[in-house]
Amino acid sequence: MIRNVSARLELETAGTTELVLGVAVAARELLGGEHLEILLDGVPIVPQELVDRHGSRLHRFVAGAGRMTIDYGAELAGLAEPAAVDPLDLVVYLRPSRYCESDSLTPTARSEFAGLSGTELLRAVGDWVHDRLRYVPGSSRVTDGAVGTLLAREGVCRDYAHLVIALLRAIDVPARMAAVYAPGLSPMDFHAVAEAYVDGAWQVVDATGLAPRQSLVRISTGRDAADTAFLSNHWADLSLRELQVTAVVDEFRLDDGRAPVALR
Fold this sequence. Notes:
Blueprint: E1 2-13, E2 17-21, E3 31-40, E4 43-44, E5 48-51, E6 57-63, E7 66-77, H1 89-92, H2 106-112, H3 118-132, E8 134-135, H4 146-152, E9 154-155, H5 157-170, E10 175-181, E11 191-198, E12 201-205, E13 217-222, E14 231-234, E15 238-249
Parallel strand pairs: 8-9
Antiparallel strand pairs: 1-7, 1-15, 2-6, 2-14, 3-4, 3-7, 5-6, 10-11, 10-13, 11-12
Helix pairs in contact: 2-5, 3-5, 4-5
């Protein structure tokens, strides 16, 4: 399987600001080639690369006011090994987090999914969220969490993932968010899915059903969207003028949504 991914961002910064990019594929993926170019008014910027324990690669730099372009691209040859299981993850990803208020959803989760376990539970939670939400681009705010999404009954991929994660944690299943490139996604964009620890492995749950799970490419991993943002900045304001994302695969696979799939 050959997968090619890219992202292009055009920004305007109002003053000196620190930026952190989360667009590079995770360190554990199989890179056939990669490039990252950052220009501020045509002048190159060389970022510092930071890698966390999941292999998420962040690129950090400071820039002044001006027009900025960021171009990233990578080719991946083959499939990576399934994500390793760290005992610390099985503690951290059971806890409530900013966007996944699992403690507030415990009564709902226990009532709806009593007696289910393993992949049957993952299918049930994914189907439950899919059936209760409408996918509406632009409908959610950056401050919306799982509880707000359930009340609004609509959202985008991050909202679907937050609700899945919160429900699973509420019934003692470790769950986390993965930001991904998603071949087959329409409209094309960065994508977010949940990963749940069942039967000794991390398995993907994508309640949106918008892209085949088998060809997803991991970018970053964390508790929720607070840990997996594609761009964050500090000090001065910025405006995102344009965002273009592409993700293609040479072996497109149909996903029936039923079988367990690990993010590779």
